[in-house]
Backbone:
């Protein structure tokens, strides 16, 4: 190489190998993130061959965390956040307490100091943002009530960890470690021990509060103003840049100036941007970067792992893993049920929090640096993190499998648990013919009794108009839709609905495609639509498929997979405009094509 380029080498090796192993994992029906972790182990220092720069990989992973939390903020409103505080705050606190106690117990058995036990326990108590959000995104749960509880819970955990990171250096001396030295002081995050515990807690909370106030008062005015100003320049590139600059800038500023975590700062930036419809849509477009960086997160975790530690640390690793996967899950499950939430919610929350990640590594590093935690503790935390991240998708499979069994037991011993996963937007008293209220992760939704019907997928700008016409013509039809807000609207309109992602086999099967006459795809994503078309053709060769597209390539793609008719949105818009100009039905040139031309 002509010159040394560690950043480029790390990105290329990380993304390249992650792609290869992710694809391999997918081939064997293992979640791709296992492949990303393996790629990380291969480019890490513990295996021979190329070694990527661990420090750089870590920082790249942090960008992934920022963008992920920013994306979540975009889907969240302050109202959503406050609506789950009743469960998220006590839930997170009790779970942290329980996990910390278990961790401290294990530390005691290993003969460590009390301080070591505390750091170790805290590190085991906090779930990884990236793992949780990826799991929710995959199942399209972020905007469901359960998703909101999980995210709220995560934010409380995040706040608790911010507090722990600030307090530990100040308390290291008391806990039997080394008094804080400048080596561990990072910017304004650290406070002198002379303030005393309550002083440090008070100042930290004051800083977090100051950040929130600055965001709500200043950010709420300035951010939309900047975005609207940039929107008026008409430059899409500048607009995307503004969105990215604000997300990263707020996150970084929050961490440096207020001692709030990067993730939390980004979350607030997203939440404030979500208040304006214009910035909301545009901001979402600028998120593909997020996926690339969250892959680098898994690679950087893999890099830290030494496969040989599995042999030398056998039972303590198993015990650590049991605390993360079983102990934490049980605690979360009991709390969520105790607060009167349905079984499905409790299972989902337990599964999504049964892992540890980035915050645990930061705590472990800090603990070792302060001479509180023995090195063995860091190794256990790393091994526990890797194994729990790999096991996490299996946890979700396990809840699918356990749910029917638990439900029959619950039905026998207690009054039936109310199934209400649709979220607060749905009025409880309203009766409507919602067949299934599932997001596709708690067992198959009940099957419709309709036959010779139309299946309409998506009830947004396009689908709702189609639905209105079908309803007016009293044709039998049902809608598959996965957004909570839209589901509430369907319920209000009294339309039969299967809720969930139509690309999910079980959700789609609940719409009885075998017995249906017509499939209408009113969703914008042609890749997802293509998958559904294939599935429909396999189930029912005779079904008439009408799909929606936004480019000629998408039209080709969907026709190739078996759609009978593909309506190209932009062409129809042109048709409408021409009609307006000439006041008559337009004569579109042949190459512009009839939308239904085969
Ligand atoms: P619009 O682009 O405004 O017509 O909205 C599209 C609608 O389709 C939105 O309400 C989405 O929630 C919904 N949607 C998109 N993808 C899926 C999917 N895979 N399964 C079910 N509904 C979907």
Residues:
């Amino acid at each position: 190489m002509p010159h040394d380029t560690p950043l480029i080498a790390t990105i290329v090796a990380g993304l390249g190998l992650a792609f290869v192993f992710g694809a391999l994992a997918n081939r064997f029906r293992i979640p791709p993130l296992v492949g990303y972790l393996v790629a990380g182990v291969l480019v890490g220092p513990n295996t021979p061959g190329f070694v990527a720069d661990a420090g750089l990989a870590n920082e790249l992973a942090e960008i992934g965390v920022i963008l992920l939390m920013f994306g979540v903020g975009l889907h969240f409103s302050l109202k959503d956040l406050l609506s789950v505080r009743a469960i998220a705050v006590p839930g997170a606190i009790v779970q942290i307490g329980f996990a910390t106690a278990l961790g401290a117990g294990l530390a005691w058995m290993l003969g460590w100091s009390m301080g070591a036990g505390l750091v170790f326990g805290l590190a085991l108590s906090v779930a990884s943002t990236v793992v949780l959000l990826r799991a929710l995104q995959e199942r399209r749960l972020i905007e469901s009530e359960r998703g909101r509880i999980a995210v709220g819970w995560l934010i409380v955990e995040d706040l608790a960890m911010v507090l722990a990171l600030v307090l530990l250096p100040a308390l290291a001396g008391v806990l039997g470690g080394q008094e804080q030295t400048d080596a561990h002081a990072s910017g304004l995050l650290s406070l002198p021990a002379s303030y005393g515990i309550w002083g440090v807690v008070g100042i930290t909370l004051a800083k977090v509060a100051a950040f929130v106030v600055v965001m709500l008062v200043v950010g709420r005015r300035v951010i939309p103003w900047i975005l609207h100003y940039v929107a008026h320049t008409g430059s899409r590139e500048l607009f995307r840049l503004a969105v990215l600059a604000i997300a990263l800038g707020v996150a970084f500023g929050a961490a440096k100036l207020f001692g709030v975590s990067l993730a939390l700062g980004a979350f607030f930036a997203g939440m404030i941007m979500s208040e304006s419809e214009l910035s909301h849509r545009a901001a979402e477009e600028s998120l593909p970067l997020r996926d690339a960086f969250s892959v680098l997160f898994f690679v950087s975790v893999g890099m830290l792992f030494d496969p040989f530690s599995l042999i030398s640390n056998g039972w303590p690793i198993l015990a650590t893993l049991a605390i993360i996967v079983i102990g934490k899950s049980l605690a979360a499950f009991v709390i969520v049920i105790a607060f009167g939430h349905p079984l499905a919610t409790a299972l989902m929350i337990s599964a999504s929090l049964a892992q540890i990640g980035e915050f645990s590594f930061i705590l472990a590093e800090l603990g070792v640096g302060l001479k509180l935690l023995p090195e063995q503790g860091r190794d256990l935390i790393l091994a526990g993190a890797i194994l729990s991240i790999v096991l996490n998708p299996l946890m979700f499979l396990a809840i699918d499998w356990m749910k029917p069994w638990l439900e029959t037991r619950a039905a026998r011993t207690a009054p039936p648990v109310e199934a209400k996963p649709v979220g607060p937007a749905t009025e409880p008293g309203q009766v409507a013919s919602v067949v299934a209220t599932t997001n596709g992760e708690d067992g198959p939704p009940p099957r419709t009794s309709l036959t010779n019907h139309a299946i309409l997928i998506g009830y947004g700008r396009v689908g709702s108009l189609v639905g209105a016409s079908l309803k007016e013509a009293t044709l039998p039809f049902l809608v598959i839709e996965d957004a909570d807000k839209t589901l509430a609207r369907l319920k209000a309109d009294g339309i039969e609905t299967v809720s969930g992602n139509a690309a999910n086999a079980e959700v789609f099967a609940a719409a009885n495609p075998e017995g249906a006459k017509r499939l209408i795809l009113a969703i914008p994503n042609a890749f997802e639509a293509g998958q559904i078309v294939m599935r429909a053709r396999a189930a029912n060769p005779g079904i008439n498929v009408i799909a929606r597209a936004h480019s000629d390539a998408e039209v080709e793609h969907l026709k190739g997979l078996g759609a009978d008719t593909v309506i190209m949105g932009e062409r129809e818009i042109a048709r409408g405009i021409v009609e307006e100009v000439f006041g008559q039905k337009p004569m579109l040139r042949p190459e512009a094509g009839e939308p239904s031309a085969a």
Remarks:
- Residues 344 and 442 are 7 Å apart (CA to CA).
